[in-house]
Amino acid sequence: MDAKIRRTESLTEEAVGAGEGTRKQDLTGRGEGAGFHMRRFVMEPGGGMPRHTNRVEHQQYVLRGRATIGIGDETVTVEEGTVLHIPAGVPHWYRAEEGEPFEFLCVVPDDEDRIEILDDGDD
């Protein structure tokens, strides 16, 4: 049996260098699942991530808090219970609203990812 059972408190959290008040926790690693892996992100109130692209698509589920997210040319407000799909290569950004931290799960393919931070005028 290849099942892996972990508790989140036993896993390391790390600051996201490009983010502000943003932490990431790898819940499963590349190659541990059926072609995907899962991460948990926490953004402190007012924190977030600048406009960027990823080489891989993202499936996200919001656990708590609220945030404004830009995806391509659209800006949306998301909260607990929201499910998002961000296609590979589409510019996106996050800004956690005041109040409680913004927390979400992010599932991505095991393919090699590359994050590119964009200037405001880049596409």
Give short descriptive properties of this protein:
ten-stranded antiparallel beta sheet; mainly beta; 55% strand; 0% helix; 123 residues
Give a written overview of the molecule.
- The protein has 123 residues and is mainly beta.
- The protein has a domain at 14-38.
- It has strands spanning 13-15, 20-26, 36-54, 58-64, 66-71, 74-79, 83-86, 92-96, 102-109, 115-117.
- The radius of gyration is 14 Å and the shape is globular.
- 15% of the residues are buried.
Task: Give a quick summary of the entry.
The protein is an all-beta fold. The chain is 0% helix and 55% strand.
Layout of secondary structure:
Layout: E1 13-15, E2 20-26, E3 36-54, E4 58-64, E5 66-71, E6 74-79, E7 83-86, E8 92-96, E9 102-109, E10 115-117
Antiparallel strand pairs: 1-2, 2-3, 3-8, 3-9, 3-10, 4-7, 4-9, 5-6, 5-8
